[in-house]
Design goal:
The protein contains two helices and no strands. With 111 residues, it is an all-alpha fold. InterPro entries: CCDC34, CCDC34/181.
Length: 111
């Protein structure tokens, strides 16, 4: 009976040790998978940030190009505007841009 109990106890101890070993192996596998997943997520995040930076650089380059074009066109317009003749203000009763007669004068006339 004592031997039987001893054998039974040693068998239970062996089973318990086996279960503990399996539990540890499962935990190690889970840790490895988690680390792989975490590494993958970090790589994806880094790639996403890299793409966002590239898009931002492209946007900045486009804006700079647009500004440059706008400035060039404005300078051309300004140069052309300087070369255009000014409208004549001294004509038909408007010396210096003002009317010479009164309003009544113009309304009483028959055109």
């Amino acid at each position: 009976e004592r031997r039987e109990r001893k054998r039974k106890l040693s068998k239970e101890m062996a089973e318990k040790a086996t279960r503990e070993l399996e539990k540890m192996q499962l935990k190690e596998k889970a840790d490895i998978k988690y680390k792989e997943w975490l590494e993958k997520k970090r790589a994806e995040e880094a790639e996403k940030k890299k793409k966002e930076k590239e898009k931002e650089k492209e946007r900045e380059a486009e804006l700079q190009e647009k500004r440059t074009r706008s400035e060039k066109i404005f300078k051309e317009w300004l140069q052309n505007a300087r070369n255009k003749p000014q409208p004549a203000l001294n004509g038909y009763g408007f010396p210096h841009g003002r009317s010479t007669g009164s309003y009544i004068q113009y309304t009483n006339r028959e055109w």
